[in-house]
Amino acid sequence: MTATYPDLEGASVFITGGGSGIGAALTDGFLAQGARVAFVQRSDASAFADAMEAKHGNRPLFLPCDVTDIPRLKACVAEAAAAHGPITVMVNNAANDQRHDTLQVDEAFWDWSQAINLKSYFFGCQAVIPGMQAAGGGSIINFSSISYMMGGAGYPAYTAANSGINGLTRSLAREFGPDRIRVNALAPGWVLTQKQKDMWVTEEALAGHLARQCLKEPLVEEDIVGGVLFLASESSRMMTGQALVIDGGVAVTG
Ligand SMILES: NC(=O)C1=CN([C@@H]2O[C@H](COP(=O)(O)OP(=O)(O)OC[C@H]3O[C@@H](n4cnc5c(N)ncnc54)[C@H](O)[C@@H]3O)[C@@H](O)[C@H]2O)C=CC1
Ligand SMILES: O=C(O)C(=O)C[C@H](O)C(=O)CO
């Protein structure tokens, strides 16, 4: 059950990685609010856009883009603004939590990981801020993760980026608050997307993780949508520079 936010009707929303996983649930959730949604991702999402149009009678604008290609990312932001009006809601969601062994990481892997998981976030924000300033404000939601709060081993380049996203978020909130641009992070817990199930979920790992949650059910994509809509809408008008955690209540120490 998701609340309705009347101010999101007609809002111009841009989502990175909006065609699969949590991002697809976000595209669905914003379309259900009557927003105009543009999203980017690397792989073809035309069939998903068709399905969304059939469901909502409101087609999202899919723009193929690798978010590590910053000129292309900026061009997509410009194309989305031309189609839907100035972007007033930006969701930096695309990421890659590829596991890695610290002693095997080389500079190329490190740079690849930061390019997706941190650099694209900075330049995604930079691309939408002038339009938000001209529009009199906006809301940016940067996806982080509880991964760095848990201090989990096995993906330090990813957790470093997730931690960096919170620093980025707080600094941008300070710099652009006077323009009425709000910048918040959202840190999900373990959300059982198809990719997580295919790549990382084992019975043992899931049981260990659920033991750390207060609420003993796994999270699904839709559990994240309500928090993002709230941060996007004027219902959170005096909230900025924060990290909203949706993780079923994971104990972060021990
Ligand atoms: N699923 C989980 O358990 C958790 C997810 N998160 C965060 O939530 C966000 C979404 O995660 P998921 O839906 O699980 O991820 P996912 O891997 O299922 O989807 C990520 C999306 O980003 C796109 N993408 C990846 N690299 C890209 C690139 N270079 N250029 C363009 N698009 C690219 C993918 O195509 C996909 O649409 C991420 O920021 C992730 O760090 C955080 C904590 C836990
Ligand atoms: O990709 C992530 O970020 C996560 O999967 C965070 C999870 O809570 C996790 O890593 C559980 O082991």
Automatic annotation (TrEMBL):
Listed Gene3D superfamilies: NAD(P)-binding Rossmann-like Domain (3.40.50.720)
Keywords, in A-Z order: Oxidoreductase
Organism whose genome encodes this protein: Pseudoruegeria aquimaris
Residue ranges of the TM segments: none
Its EC number(s): 1.1.1.127
Single Gene Ontology MF annotation: 2-dehydro-3-deoxy-D-gluconate 5-dehydrogenase activity
Domain Ketoreductase: 11-190
Keyword Oxidoreductase: yes
Entry protein name: 2-dehydro-3-deoxy-D-gluconate 5-dehydrogenase
Homology family: Belongs to the short-chain dehydrogenases/reductases (SDR) family.
Transcription listed as a keyword: no
InterPro entries in the cross-refs: KR_dom, NAD(P)-bd_dom_sf, SDR_fam
